[in-house]
Amino acid sequence: MTYELTPLNPIFGAELHGADLRDPPSPELVELVNEAMAEYAVLVIRDQKITDEQHIRFTRAFGPLELMPDLGMGRNKPSRVLPEMYDASNLDENGEIVGPKSTRASFNKGNELFHSDSSYNDLPTKWSLLMGHIVPPEGGNTEFVDMRAVYEALSDEMKAKVENLVVEHYIWHSRRKGGLTGITPEMEAAMPPVHHPLVLVSENGRKALFIGGHASHIVGWPVEEGRKLIGEIMTLAAEPRFVYSHPWREGDLVVYDNRCLLHRATPYDIAQHRRILQRTTVSDEGPTAPQV
Protein backbone atom coordinates (compact mmCIF):
# COMPACT_ATOMS: atom_id res chain seq x y z
CA MET A 1 0.00 0.00 0.00
CA THR A 2 1.31 3.46 -0.97
CA TYR A 3 0.45 6.36 1.34
CA GLU A 4 0.84 10.07 0.69
CA LEU A 5 0.51 13.14 2.94
CA THR A 6 -0.66 16.52 1.64
CA PRO A 7 -0.48 19.60 3.91
CA LEU A 8 -3.82 21.35 4.52
CA ASN A 9 -2.55 24.58 6.06
CA PRO A 10 0.75 26.47 6.17
CA ILE A 11 1.35 25.64 9.85
CA PHE A 12 -0.49 22.38 10.63
CA GLY A 13 -2.88 19.72 9.33
CA ALA A 14 -2.47 17.15 6.55
CA GLU A 15 -4.58 14.83 4.42
CA LEU A 16 -3.61 11.17 4.27
CA HIS A 17 -4.16 9.45 0.91
CA GLY A 18 -4.18 5.72 0.24
CA ALA A 19 -5.65 4.36 3.49
CA ASP A 20 -8.68 2.03 3.48
CA LEU A 21 -9.90 1.69 7.05
CA ARG A 22 -12.21 -1.20 6.19
CA ASP A 23 -9.04 -3.27 6.53
CA PRO A 24 -7.27 -3.83 9.86
CA PRO A 25 -4.58 -1.15 10.31
CA SER A 26 -1.14 -2.43 9.34
CA PRO A 27 1.97 -1.66 11.43
CA GLU A 28 3.13 0.57 8.57
CA LEU A 29 -0.08 2.62 8.67
CA VAL A 30 -0.03 2.91 12.46
CA GLU A 31 3.58 4.15 12.39
CA LEU A 32 2.80 6.66 9.64
CA VAL A 33 -0.25 8.03 11.48
CA ASN A 34 1.73 8.38 14.72
CA GLU A 35 4.50 10.28 12.92
CA ALA A 36 2.05 12.46 10.99
CA MET A 37 0.08 13.35 14.10
CA ALA A 38 3.23 14.38 15.97
CA GLU A 39 4.06 16.77 13.14
CA TYR A 40 0.68 17.98 11.82
CA ALA A 41 -1.68 17.41 14.83
CA VAL A 42 -4.69 17.11 12.45
CA LEU A 43 -5.01 14.28 9.93
CA VAL A 44 -7.89 14.03 7.45
CA ILE A 45 -8.64 10.64 5.89
CA ARG A 46 -11.35 11.04 3.25
CA ASP A 47 -13.82 8.70 1.54
CA GLN A 48 -14.01 6.14 4.35
CA LYS A 49 -17.16 4.01 4.16
CA ILE A 50 -16.58 2.31 7.47
CA THR A 51 -18.79 0.78 10.12
CA ASP A 52 -18.73 1.89 13.75
CA GLU A 53 -16.86 -1.32 14.60
CA GLN A 54 -14.17 -0.51 12.02
CA HIS A 55 -13.95 3.03 13.36
CA ILE A 56 -13.40 1.65 16.88
CA ARG A 57 -10.87 -0.93 15.66
CA PHE A 58 -8.76 1.76 13.99
CA THR A 59 -8.89 3.91 17.12
CA ARG A 60 -7.73 1.09 19.39
CA ALA A 61 -4.49 0.87 17.39
CA PHE A 62 -3.43 4.15 19.04
CA GLY A 63 -4.35 3.62 22.68
CA PRO A 64 -7.10 2.82 25.18
CA LEU A 65 -10.52 4.29 24.52
CA GLU A 66 -12.26 6.90 26.60
CA LEU A 67 -15.90 6.34 27.49
CA MET A 68 -18.54 9.05 27.53
CA PRO A 69 -18.78 10.24 31.15
CA ASP A 70 -22.00 9.98 33.13
CA LEU A 71 -22.53 13.78 33.42
CA GLY A 72 -25.43 13.12 35.79
CA MET A 73 -27.86 13.45 32.87
CA GLY A 74 -29.24 9.92 32.71
CA ARG A 75 -26.69 8.02 30.64
CA ASN A 76 -28.80 4.87 30.84
CA LYS A 77 -31.24 6.29 28.30
CA PRO A 78 -31.27 4.62 24.86
CA SER A 79 -28.45 5.78 22.59
CA ARG A 80 -27.97 5.74 18.84
CA VAL A 81 -24.27 4.87 19.16
CA LEU A 82 -22.08 2.22 20.72
CA PRO A 83 -20.78 2.93 24.26
CA GLU A 84 -17.24 3.44 22.94
CA MET A 85 -18.43 6.41 20.84
CA TYR A 86 -19.54 9.99 21.38
CA ASP A 87 -22.56 11.20 19.40
CA ALA A 88 -21.98 14.66 17.93
CA SER A 89 -25.19 14.66 15.86
CA ASN A 90 -28.34 16.77 16.03
CA LEU A 91 -30.53 13.66 16.34
CA ASP A 92 -32.34 12.09 19.28
CA GLU A 93 -32.22 8.40 20.22
CA ASN A 94 -34.88 7.68 17.57
CA GLY A 95 -32.94 9.37 14.77
CA GLU A 96 -35.20 12.43 14.66
CA ILE A 97 -33.85 16.00 14.46
CA VAL A 98 -33.89 17.60 17.89
CA GLY A 99 -35.48 21.00 18.38
CA PRO A 100 -33.18 24.04 18.56
CA LYS A 101 -34.39 24.72 22.12
CA SER A 102 -33.96 21.12 23.33
CA THR A 103 -31.55 20.19 26.11
CA ARG A 104 -29.36 18.35 23.59
CA ALA A 105 -29.17 21.35 21.28
CA SER A 106 -28.37 23.64 24.22
CA PHE A 107 -25.68 21.24 25.45
CA ASN A 108 -24.13 21.05 21.96
CA LYS A 109 -24.09 24.86 21.71
CA GLY A 110 -21.10 24.79 24.05
CA ASN A 111 -19.17 23.02 21.26
CA GLU A 112 -19.16 26.30 19.34
CA LEU A 113 -16.55 27.56 21.82
CA PHE A 114 -12.94 26.68 21.03
CA HIS A 115 -12.17 23.76 23.34
CA SER A 116 -10.13 20.60 23.87
CA ASP A 117 -12.21 17.42 24.09
CA SER A 118 -12.53 16.11 27.64
CA SER A 119 -10.11 18.59 29.20
CA TYR A 120 -12.60 18.49 32.08
CA ASN A 121 -11.44 14.92 32.87
CA ASP A 122 -8.60 14.04 35.25
CA LEU A 123 -7.16 11.61 32.71
CA PRO A 124 -5.50 13.40 29.80
CA THR A 125 -7.10 12.94 26.40
CA LYS A 126 -4.77 12.13 23.53
CA TRP A 127 -6.64 12.16 20.20
CA SER A 128 -10.20 12.34 18.95
CA LEU A 129 -11.25 10.58 15.74
CA LEU A 130 -14.37 12.24 14.34
CA MET A 131 -16.28 10.55 11.50
CA GLY A 132 -18.69 12.39 9.19
CA HIS A 133 -21.55 10.09 8.14
CA ILE A 134 -24.11 12.73 7.09
CA VAL A 135 -23.19 16.41 6.75
CA PRO A 136 -25.34 19.48 5.97
CA PRO A 137 -25.20 21.03 2.48
CA GLU A 138 -23.69 24.23 3.89
CA GLY A 139 -22.17 25.39 7.16
CA GLY A 140 -21.08 23.15 9.98
CA ASN A 141 -17.32 23.38 9.41
CA THR A 142 -15.04 22.37 12.28
CA GLU A 143 -12.32 24.91 12.99
CA PHE A 144 -8.99 23.94 14.56
CA VAL A 145 -6.33 26.08 16.25
CA ASP A 146 -2.68 25.07 16.64
CA MET A 147 -1.87 26.04 20.23
CA ARG A 148 1.82 25.25 19.61
CA ALA A 149 1.95 28.12 17.14
CA VAL A 150 -0.03 30.36 19.50
CA TYR A 151 2.47 29.68 22.31
CA GLU A 152 5.37 30.46 19.98
CA ALA A 153 3.70 33.77 19.04
CA LEU A 154 3.66 34.94 22.67
CA SER A 155 6.18 37.52 23.84
CA ASP A 156 9.02 36.29 26.02
CA GLU A 157 7.40 38.15 28.92
CA MET A 158 4.08 36.34 28.41
CA LYS A 159 5.80 32.95 28.04
CA ALA A 160 7.48 33.49 31.40
CA LYS A 161 4.16 34.57 32.92
CA VAL A 162 2.23 31.46 31.86
CA GLU A 163 5.01 28.87 32.26
CA ASN A 164 4.00 27.46 35.66
CA LEU A 165 0.32 28.38 35.81
CA VAL A 166 -2.40 25.82 36.50
CA VAL A 167 -5.91 26.11 35.05
CA GLU A 168 -9.20 24.81 36.40
CA HIS A 169 -11.26 23.03 33.70
CA TYR A 170 -14.97 22.49 34.31
CA ILE A 171 -17.54 21.17 31.86
CA TRP A 172 -20.38 23.13 33.44
CA HIS A 173 -18.42 26.36 32.98
CA SER A 174 -18.38 25.88 29.21
CA ARG A 175 -21.99 24.67 29.09
CA ARG A 176 -23.23 27.70 31.02
CA LYS A 177 -21.28 29.94 28.62
CA GLY A 178 -23.02 28.11 25.76
CA GLY A 179 -26.43 28.87 27.28
CA LEU A 180 -27.30 25.57 28.99
CA THR A 181 -29.62 26.03 31.94
CA GLY A 182 -31.02 23.60 34.48
CA ILE A 183 -27.63 22.28 35.62
CA THR A 184 -28.43 20.33 38.77
CA PRO A 185 -26.33 19.59 41.86
CA GLU A 186 -26.30 15.94 40.69
CA MET A 187 -24.76 17.00 37.38
CA GLU A 188 -22.16 19.14 39.15
CA ALA A 189 -21.29 16.30 41.52
CA ALA A 190 -20.91 13.85 38.61
CA MET A 191 -18.35 16.08 36.85
CA PRO A 192 -16.38 18.19 39.35
CA PRO A 193 -13.67 20.61 38.15
CA VAL A 194 -10.11 19.40 37.49
CA HIS A 195 -6.71 21.11 37.25
CA HIS A 196 -4.19 20.99 34.38
CA PRO A 197 -0.98 22.90 33.58
CA LEU A 198 -1.51 25.80 31.20
CA VAL A 199 1.65 24.88 29.26
CA LEU A 200 2.15 21.33 27.97
CA VAL A 201 4.88 19.77 25.83
CA SER A 202 3.44 18.30 22.63
CA GLU A 203 4.37 15.02 20.96
CA ASN A 204 7.14 16.56 18.86
CA GLY A 205 8.62 18.54 21.76
CA ARG A 206 7.02 21.91 21.02
CA LYS A 207 5.27 23.67 23.87
CA ALA A 208 1.52 24.27 23.60
CA LEU A 209 -1.10 26.21 25.56
CA PHE A 210 -3.78 24.03 27.16
CA ILE A 211 -6.90 26.09 27.78
CA GLY A 212 -10.12 26.47 25.76
CA GLY A 213 -13.81 26.72 26.50
CA HIS A 214 -13.72 24.39 29.51
CA ALA A 215 -11.00 26.52 31.17
CA SER A 216 -12.68 28.43 33.99
CA HIS A 217 -9.88 30.32 35.73
CA ILE A 218 -6.25 30.28 36.90
CA VAL A 219 -5.71 28.37 40.13
CA GLY A 220 -4.47 30.66 42.89
CA TRP A 221 -5.40 33.86 41.05
CA PRO A 222 -8.46 36.06 41.56
CA VAL A 223 -11.08 34.52 39.27
CA GLU A 224 -11.69 37.59 37.11
CA GLU A 225 -7.97 38.29 36.72
CA GLY A 226 -7.40 34.69 35.56
CA ARG A 227 -10.32 34.85 33.17
CA LYS A 228 -8.94 38.05 31.70
CA LEU A 229 -5.63 36.32 30.94
CA ILE A 230 -7.42 33.31 29.44
CA GLY A 231 -9.53 35.68 27.34
CA GLU A 232 -6.45 37.48 26.02
CA ILE A 233 -4.87 34.19 24.94
CA MET A 234 -8.12 32.96 23.37
CA THR A 235 -8.46 36.21 21.39
CA LEU A 236 -4.98 35.65 20.00
CA ALA A 237 -5.71 31.98 19.26
CA ALA A 238 -8.80 32.85 17.19
CA GLU A 239 -6.78 34.92 14.72
CA PRO A 240 -7.09 33.40 11.21
CA ARG A 241 -3.34 32.74 10.95
CA PHE A 242 -3.66 29.98 13.55
CA VAL A 243 -6.90 28.42 12.26
CA TYR A 244 -7.66 25.57 9.84
CA SER A 245 -11.37 25.35 8.95
CA HIS A 246 -12.39 21.87 7.84
CA PRO A 247 -15.29 21.69 5.32
CA TRP A 248 -16.92 18.31 5.96
CA ARG A 249 -17.60 15.73 3.28
CA GLU A 250 -19.40 12.49 3.94
CA GLY A 251 -16.83 9.79 4.61
CA ASP A 252 -14.29 12.11 6.27
CA LEU A 253 -12.45 10.80 9.31
CA VAL A 254 -10.62 13.64 11.07
CA VAL A 255 -8.03 12.77 13.70
CA TYR A 256 -6.89 15.61 15.98
CA ASP A 257 -4.59 15.95 18.97
CA ASN A 258 -6.42 17.44 21.97
CA ARG A 259 -3.17 18.16 23.82
CA CYS A 260 -1.98 20.85 21.41
CA LEU A 261 -5.10 21.89 19.47
CA LEU A 262 -8.41 23.56 20.15
CA HIS A 263 -11.44 23.12 17.93
CA ARG A 264 -15.01 24.36 17.63
CA ALA A 265 -18.14 23.61 15.68
CA THR A 266 -19.55 26.32 13.42
CA PRO A 267 -23.28 26.94 12.94
CA TYR A 268 -25.55 25.29 10.38
CA ASP A 269 -29.33 24.95 10.09
CA ILE A 270 -29.83 22.36 12.82
CA ALA A 271 -33.62 22.48 12.49
CA GLN A 272 -33.60 21.49 8.80
CA HIS A 273 -30.55 19.33 8.08
CA ARG A 274 -29.51 16.03 9.61
CA ARG A 275 -25.89 15.93 10.72
CA ILE A 276 -24.35 12.70 11.95
CA LEU A 277 -20.82 12.98 13.31
CA GLN A 278 -19.53 10.30 15.68
CA ARG A 279 -16.22 10.22 17.43
CA THR A 280 -13.99 7.94 19.39
CA THR A 281 -11.41 9.31 21.81
CA VAL A 282 -8.04 7.88 22.82
CA SER A 283 -6.84 8.35 26.38
CA ASP A 284 -3.26 9.45 26.88
CA GLU A 285 -2.72 6.73 29.49
CA GLY A 286 -4.70 3.97 31.20
CA PRO A 287 -7.81 2.16 29.91
CA THR A 288 -11.19 3.83 30.39
CA ALA A 289 -13.25 1.61 28.10
CA PRO A 290 -13.45 -2.20 27.89
CA GLN A 291 -10.65 -3.45 25.66
CA VAL A 292 -12.61 -6.22 23.92
Report on this structure.
The chain has a single domain, classed as Double-stranded beta-helix (4-Layer Sandwich), CATH 3.60.130. The protein is globular and about 55 Å long. The strands form 4 sheets. A 7-stranded mixed β-sheet has the order 1-2-3-13-5-15-4, covered by helices on one side. The longest helix is centred in the C-terminal third of the chain and has 15 residues, at 223-237. 25% of the residues lie in helices and 24% in strands. A hairpin with a 6-residue loop joins strand 1 (4-7) and strand 2 (14-17). The relative contact order is 0.25. The protein has 292 residues and is of the alpha+beta class.
- Give the mean pLDDT: 90
In oligomeric terms, what are we looking at? single chain
| Helix/strand class | alpha+beta
Unreliable stretches (pLDDT < 50, length at least 5) are: 287-292
Shape label: globular
What keywords describe this structure?
alpha+beta; Double-stranded beta-helix; seven-stranded mixed β-sheet; globular
Task: Put the structure in a nutshell.
The chain is an alpha+beta fold and 292 residues long. The chain is 25% helix and 24% strand.
